[in-house]
């Protein structure tokens, strides 16, 4: 739960605590109900604004408890007599990044792995240092990733999408890091 959501739950809980105490106070005679009505009638606009805010907070709290889209974090690679074997998407992601680093000098890499009906899609966003033909390099990387990920994990790789967002022709020397 995010911090703002926790704050909403806290405010809502405190408000309901106050309302329940007021109701108990009225029921046992500690608080005069006419005093409460007079207090509300003094500023109806403020009561309306507070009511609207509380309504929006209650909708957000309800939304937290409604089932959302379940995030897939693993894929089934084998089904045996003793059970299933699953590989996390994080493991596939790290493996793909390692393969890229072995094949080409990378200065920046961002990757994402998604499960599809046909297997997994691997999406790579790279900044590289290379003098090679980018199209040929991309195709070579796609094949290497598909073959090695499938061989290592058993997960069927459907697509390998590569975006090369930056190409440096030469490696920059490290300044002062000798």
Give an account of the 3D structure.
- The chain crosses the membrane at residues 7-31, 43-62.
- Keywords: Membrane, Transmembrane, Transmembrane helix.
- This is Alkaline shock protein 23.
- 52% of the residues lie in helices and 27% in strands.
- It is an alpha+beta fold and 178 residues long.
- The chain folds into two domains: 3-65, no CATH class; 74-168, GMP Synthetase, Chain A, domain 3, CATH 3.30.300.20.
- The strands form two sheets. Strands 3-4-5 form a three-stranded mixed β-sheet, with helices on one face. Strands 1-2 form a two-stranded antiparallel sheet.
- α4 (89-103) packs across α5.
- The mean pLDDT is 83.
Layout of strands and helices, then pairs:
Layout: H1 3-27, H2 33-42, H3 44-65, E1 74-80, E2 83-88, H4 89-103, E3 105-116, E4 119-129, H5 134-153, E5 157-168
Parallel strand pairs: 4-5
Antiparallel strand pairs: 1-2, 3-4
Helix pairs in contact: 1-3, 4-5
Organism: Halobacteroides halobius (strain ATCC 35273 / DSM 5150 / MD-1)
Transmembrane segments: 7-31, 43-62
Protein name: Alkaline shock protein 23
Summarize the structure.
By secondary structure, the protein is of the alpha+beta class.
Radius of gyration from the CA trace? 29 Å
Return the domain count. Answer: 2
User: How many helices?
Assistant: 5
The third-level CATH topology of the largest domain is GMP Synthetase, Chain A, domain 3
Contiguous runs where pLDDT drops below 50 for at least 5 residues: none
Strand order of the largest sheet: 3-4-5
Q: Overall mean pLDDT score?
A: 83
Largest sheet: 3 strands, mixed
> Class by helix and strand content?
alpha+beta
CATH class of the largest domain: Alpha Beta
CATH architect. name of the largest domain: 2-Layer Sandwich
Q: SSE order in H/E notation?
A: HHHEEHEEHE
CATH superfamily membership of the largest domain? K homology (KH) domain
Number of strands: 5
Percent of residues in helices comes to: 40-55%
Strand content: 25-35%
Measured distance between first and last alpha carbons: 45 Å
Question: Judging from the principal axes of the Cα atoms, what is the shape?
Answer: elongated
Organism: Halobacteroides halobius (strain ATCC 35273 / DSM 5150 / MD-1)
Keywords: Membrane, Transmembrane, Transmembrane helix
Protein name: Alkaline shock protein 23
Transmembrane segments: 7-31, 43-62
């Amino acid at each position: 739960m995010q911090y703002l959501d926790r704050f909403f739950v806290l405010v809502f809980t405190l408000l309901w605590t106050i309302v329940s105490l007021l109701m108990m106070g009225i029921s046992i005679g500690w608080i005069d109900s006419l005093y409460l009505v007079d207090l509300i009638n003094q500023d109806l606009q403020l009561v309306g604004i507070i009511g609207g805010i509380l309504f929006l907070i209650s909708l957000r709290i309800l939304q937290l408890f409604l089932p959302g889209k379940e995030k897939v974090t693993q894929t089934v690679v084998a089904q045996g007599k003793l059970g299933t074997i699953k590989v996390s998407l994080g493991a596939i992601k790290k493996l793909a990044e390692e393969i890229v680093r072995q094949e080409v000098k990378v200065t920046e890499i961002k990757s994402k792995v998604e499960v599809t009906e046909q297997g997994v899609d691997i999406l790579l966003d790279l900044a590289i240092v290379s003098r090679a033909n980018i199209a040929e390099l991309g195709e070579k990387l796609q094949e290497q990733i598909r073959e090695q990920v499938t061989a290592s994990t058993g997960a069927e790789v459907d697509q390998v999408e590569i975006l090369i967002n930056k190409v440096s022709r030469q490696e920059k020397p490290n300044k002062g890091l000798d």
